[in-house]
Amino acid sequence: MPDAPDRIRAAFADAGVTGRLHALDIDSAAQLGVDADQLVCTASVHKLCLLVALHDRAATGDLDLTEPVECSPDGRTPGPTGLAAMLDATRLSLRDLAYLMMAVSDNAAADLLLARVGLDAVNRTTARLGLETTRAVHTFGAMLASIKEDAGPAGVQALADPHVVARLRALDPARTNHSTPRDMTRLLRAVWRDEACPPEHGAAIRRVMALQVWPHRLASGFPFDDVHVAGKTGSLPTLRNEVGVVEYPDGGRYAVAVFTRTARTAATLPAADAVIGTAARIAVDALHNRKRDVPPSAR
């Protein structure tokens, strides 16, 4: 395990990214980090915090997950997936909005949930769980609006200019939704140990995280039929993130959080996506091998 952080740093450098990582054995609490306490922009990873807050409020009876929500096309938060990309009015339950938010990172679904749950409730939930560096500052629509405003009249084309990207408030952890890799693995551990919510709600969170459709980041490091990966991605110009849990057939469970940033502004950078899986695999292998080397009586 001692050389794992160096190997992770080398992988980040080879992919042309600045990376932060934390990996945590859910059962033993053994851990491994690379700049794990650095504040990072969460982007859509913060939808996991919203999901936990939703179930936290449902568990206390503050809301019913089957409650229907009218989803008008007028004023929907923009995005390339889910309701954000749809044209017509529809009606969905809170829990089905949560599915869209997590499975395809639907921004419109996320902001409809935020309107019901509230930013303050999200922050109360993360504070209750001891995540001192994790905070929701604004809605996803507000975050996207700040990017549009900061990009200026040239619009999305301006985001190819590194000087424009450098001034985006959405990429400054002090001015946007933020956390640290260590906080995010603590949150995942709490969810997987049913410490964040009662068991039925923890199971629902784990189920919907397992339905994420994107295999090109975290899951790419674990291409095995008997290894289960559940996660949540997050992306903004130059940012590629994912947090999730990797479960091995022998019962090993590992929470991983990887946050990366690249100097290149291209929207498609396969190496930057793939290194999330590579770095996670190095970290999880180190923790998994350590567990196998420790006699059961000493665990």
Automatic annotation (TrEMBL):
<keyword id="KW-0378">Hydrolase</keyword>
<dbReference type="Pfam" id="PF13354">
    <property type="entry name" value="Beta-lactamase2"/>
</dbReference>
<dbReference type="InterPro" id="IPR045155">
    <property type="entry name" value="Beta-lactam_cat"/>
</dbReference>
<dbReference type="InterPro" id="IPR012338">
    <property type="entry name" value="Beta-lactam/transpept-like"/>
</dbReference>
<dbReference type="InterPro" id="IPR000871">
    <property type="entry name" value="Beta-lactam_class-A"/>
</dbReference>
<dbReference type="GO" id="GO:0016787">
    <property type="term" value="F:hydrolase activity"/>
</dbReference>
<protein>
    <submittedName>
        <fullName>Serine hydrolase</fullName>
    </submittedName>
</protein>
<feature type="domain" description="Beta-lactamase class A catalytic">
    <location>
        <begin position="22"/>
        <end position="260"/>
    </location>
</feature>
